[in-house]
Amino acid sequence: MDTTEEQKLKLREAILENREKYEGNNMTFSKSQKYYDMLAEKYEEQLLNANVRTHEITAETVADLYPSDVRDKVKILDVGAGTGMVGSALRGLRFKHIDALEPNPNMLGKAKLQNRYETYFIESVNPEESSSIKNGTYDAITMCATLAEAGHIPPEAIKGIVRMVKKGGYMVIVNRVLKDETLNDIDAVMDSLEADKKMIKVTRKVWPGYNEVTGDFGITWVYRVL
Ligand SMILES: C[S@@+](CC[C@H](N)C(=O)[O-])C[C@H]1O[C@@H](n2cnc3c(N)ncnc32)[C@H](O)[C@@H]1O
């Protein structure tokens, strides 16, 4: 086995071990936040070593919705922004007005250091609490790698996130494909929002190569808010 293969194998073991510990079924939000406290320093390096392009895919998906001459007027909220990789990729595609919502100060601190967003909301989204963000504030919302089997953004919270988007705006969610039960829960929330005429599906697509090292598939949901 050459060094690169050996490194990839080690990285795969580390990612899967962390996932079991911090995203598995028994995970809670506060425990997973402790993990992000620790991970913040190495987060981007770990993803780049695994050739994860989710931040770019998220930004490219948003860019497909807006011609380049209007992008500087589009107001975007990146939910679960982490260290700001999505913000940086969006800026690279000529979006200018991007805010971040992220509960973890260490992760968000990295984004702040690099000025990746305009406004930083240190908060979480969950079905029990309403966010400080007013209804219909944003043209688009991005959520990249923010859904997990547990300890992250609960599927029901998507209902509260949709209300932050202006009518005619978009929700763009890019994630790894989760266990069937969780994926069914997310799709059920999407279906119920569509049935209630809150939004309409533009795309739901599953694609290979989300993470070269773990072999995960990715999934992209794009919805237009009504
Ligand atoms: C895997 S990281 C993804 C970060 C970033 N979106 C990216 O693509 O690099 C998941 C992020 O979601 C955040 N998060 C977890 N639960 C959340 C919640 N309930 N509300 C908002 N963000 C949450 C975590 O703090 C973490 O920064």
Reconstruct the topology from this structure.
Elements: H1 3-22, H2 29-39, H3 43-49, H4 54-63, E1 75-79, H5 85-92, E2 97-101, H6 105-113, E3 120-121, E4 138-144, H7 158-162, E5 165-176, H8 180-195, E6 199-211, E7 216-225
Parallel strand pairs: 1-2, 1-4, 2-3, 4-5
Antiparallel strand pairs: 5-7, 6-7
Helix pairs in contact: 4-5
Bound molecules: S-adenosylmethionine (SAM).
Protein model, in words:
It is a single chain. The protein has 226 residues and is an alpha/beta fold. The protein has a single domain (3-225), classed as Rossmann fold (3-Layer(aba) Sandwich). Helix content is 38%, strand content 24%. It has helices at residues 3-22, 29-39, 43-49, 54-63, 85-92, 105-113, 158-162, 180-195; strands spanning 75-79, 97-101, 120-121, 138-144, 165-176, 199-211, 216-225. Strands 3-2-1-4-5-7-6 form a 7-stranded mixed β-sheet, sandwiched between helices. It is globular and about 50 Å long. The N and C termini lie far apart (53 Å). 36% of the residues are buried. The model has no long low-confidence stretch (mean pLDDT 93).
